[in-house]
Write a structure and sequence with these properties.
With 266 residues, the chain is an alpha/beta fold. It contains nine helices and 18 strands. Helix 1 runs parallel beside helix 9 (256-265).
């Protein structure tokens, strides 16, 4: 936005690679201060992440957020920040998705979100990759479920190999995005994305579409960046993400987000 009088009233922020530096595992003081300057100026900050509720709560705590909303599991779960609880959830049927991914990604392991508890997994994931309890289950046991999020991890392969294998593929009755840090597929209900969930929330909050802002760095942020009146891609994000944005900020390691937000909230 070039209008000097414009300020975003609804600010949607990705977590990993946008707020949080994956290299340090923390949110810098500069990022935290910039977020609170926006809140103090009256803007609504919404955390929008692929993380589960359990993985998002520590981020809310680190940011000292005590009100508002967070969108978890790529928009499938809406969280009341004050209560730290899910207030609405969308789910999808796992059976057809598991059949398709198992055929296309031989050897992949799966984690189905067990809301508020952890994940049901077909093999144990490293402890830093999933939040909460990991309970072992067979693929057949998972296939009987409906869940808000499924992760497929194609161990021993690169994110580029995963992208090549799933190029042009449409999974049944769901939406999926690929991670550019890990060989992960994140699956959510059909039509659900950070962008679609934010549009629903925007309408409920009564914020005009032209007063929206979003920042992110991953493939699961593309719909959100296109949704926003002003979408900002982090500098370390892949070209596909940068191309979807109105502006490219500096990388998260260089506090790229505060440099952009401070244009309006310094």
């Amino acid at each position: 936005m070039t209008d000097a009088a414009w300020k975003p009233r609804l600010i949607a922020l990705d977590v990993d690679g946008t707020l949080l530096n994956p290299d340090t595992g923390h949110i810098s003081a500069a990022v935290k201060a910039a977020v609170h300057r926006a809140i103090d100026a009256g803007s609504q900050v919404v955390i929008a992440t692929g993380r589960t509720v359990l993985g998002t709560v520590p981020v809310l705590d680190e940011l000292d957020l005590t009100s508002g909303f967070a969108l978890c599991s790529n928009g499938a779960v809406l969280v009341d920040v004050a209560a730290r609880e899910a207030v609405s959830t969308e789910t999808f049927e796992l059976a057809p998705v598991l059949a398709e991914l198992s055929a296309r990604l031989p050897g992949a392991i799966f984690a189905a979100e067990n809301l508020g508890v952890g994940n049901l997994v077909t093999a144990e994931f490293p402890p830093n990759q999933l939040e909460g309890e990991q309970r072992l289950a067979t693929v057949d046991e998972l296939a009987a479920l409906r869940v808000p999020r499924l992760i497929a991890s194609w161990i021993g392969h690169s994110p580029d190999e995963l992208e090549e294998r799933l190029a042009g593929v449409e999974l049944p009755s769901c939406t999926f995005t690929l991670d550019h840090y890990e060989p992960w597929v994140t699956v959510t209900p059909k039509g659900v994305s950070k962008g679609s969930a934010l549009e629903k929330l925007r309408a409920e909050l009564g914020v005009p579409g032209e007063d929206t802002f979003a920042a992110g760095d991953g493939g699961n942020d593309i719909e959100m960046l296109r949704w926003a009146a002003h979408g900002v891609a982090m500098g370390q994000g892949p070209e596909l993400v940068r191309a979807a944005a109105d502006e490219v900020a500096g990388p998260v390691a260089e506090d790229g987000l505060p440099a952009v937000l401070d244009r309006w909230f310094r």
